[in-house]
Amino acid sequence: MKYVIEVQKICDIQNENNKNEYEHVGYINKIFSNQRELRKYVKDHNTAIRWKGSRYRGYLTSTHPETGYRYFSRLYRDEKLNLPAFI
Predict the structure, then answer these.
(1) Residue 73 and residue 5 in contact, taking contact as beta carbons nearer than 8 Å
(2) Is the predicted pLDDT of residue 55 greater than 70, yes or no?
């Protein structure tokens, strides 16, 4: 199985549960052979965030306090990888 990183950005809009909404930014142009490698890559480039979730539901990071980005591990299904190696 192969994995990619989806990037989402926090919006100023809140949903009916008073939670912030996120918009899809794109996929980082790098494919990983496993989720452990993917999570290490994000953590090495972004020490201000932490991972949460499980291998069954997918892994998601906390929101970066400065950029407003969060990162989600996704199974690679031929998505267009449109973002530079790391943002």
Answers:
(1) yes
(2) no
